[in-house]
Amino acid sequence: MRVKICGLTRAEDAKIAHDLGAWALGFIFYPKSKRFITARDAKSIIAALPAAQPVGVFVNQTDEAIAIAKDAGLKGLQLHGDETPDDLRRLRAAFTGIVIKALRPKTEADLRAIADYKGLADFILLDAAVGNEYGGTGHTGDWSLAQKAAAFGMPVIVAGGLGPDNINAAHAQTRPYALDLSSGVEAAPGIKDHAKLQALFAHIKGSTHAAQNA
């Protein structure tokens, strides 16, 4: 089971997430986010973890994303706003790392937007739809939509209200490429709870062990 730990702002949190086995580490460069980090601070954290896969999260900041990716040493970009396929084409011309396009579907019909990004994004991330919020709400998404999203032929990442207590259930129901967590392993916005992180990966390892011996 792959997990991305997002909303990191401290070096010690990024290190323990990486050491425990996180697939990717997420850094939010959207200034309105409670988990905002500057490019300078992110660069320092990323430089200390050369084997990690750092992903920058941006909201309607395509040009800025390209500049920060180069400056901070990002290996992935997550576009969490209203970015169009043309925005992704422009980004692809300047960035060679992985690209994740986040969507917040409310209904099955909303999943049709996935087709617009096929061949442009490497992954589609499905987050909970909560008002006009772009993400990070802590609300659990509709897992049934994540199941149906697989029909569009793109690897799916599931986000929204995930933590140690429901990580295995979310994985079993949605069978995604990866799961994305932020508030579910926090002590406060941007401050990770190391006990929750350890519990998360213990649950994951326990589930994997049980599956291998089933």
Kindly summarize this structure in a few lines:
This protein has 7 helices and 10 strands.
Topology:
Blueprint: E1 3-5, H1 11-20, E2 24-28, H2 39-47, E3 54-58, H3 62-72, E4 76-79, H4 85-92, E5 98-103, E6 123-126, H5 143-149, E7 156-159, H6 167-174, E8 178-181, E9 186-188, E10 191-192, H7 194-212
Account of the protein in words:
This protein is an alpha/beta fold and 214 residues long. The protein has a single domain, classed as Aldolase class I (TIM Barrel, Alpha-Beta Barrel). The protein is 34% helix and 19% strand. The chain contains 7 helices and 10 strands. It has helices at 11-20, 39-47, 62-72, 85-92, 143-149, 167-174, 194-212; strands at residues 3-5, 24-28, 54-58, 76-79, 98-103, 123-126, 156-159, 178-181, 186-188, 191-192. The strands form 2 sheets. The chain has an 8-stranded parallel β-barrel with strand order 1-2-3-4-5-6-7-8, surrounded by 4 helices. Mean pLDDT is 92; it is low at 209-214.
Keywords:
single chain, 214 residues, alpha/beta, TIM Barrel, eight-stranded parallel β-barrel, two-stranded antiparallel ribbon, 10 strands, 19% strand, disordered C terminus
Q: What structural class do the secondary elements suggest?
A: alpha/beta
Q: What do the pLDDT scores average to?
A: 92
Q: In the CATH scheme, what's the topology name? A: TIM Barrel
How many strands, what sense, and barrel or not for the largest sheet? 8 strands, parallel, barrel
User: CA-to-CA gap between the ends?
Assistant: 16 Å
- The low-confidence parts are 209-214
**Helix amount:** 25-40%
What does the radius of gyration come to?
A: 16 Å
Oligomeric status: single chain
Counting DSSP H or I runs of 4 or more residues, the number of helices is 7
CATH top-level class: Alpha Beta
Q: Give the strand order of the largest sheet, numbering strands 1, 2, ... along the chain.
A: 1-2-3-4-5-6-7-8
Gross geometry: globular
Order of helices and strands: EHEHEHEHEEHEHEEEH
The CATH superfamily title: Aldolase class I
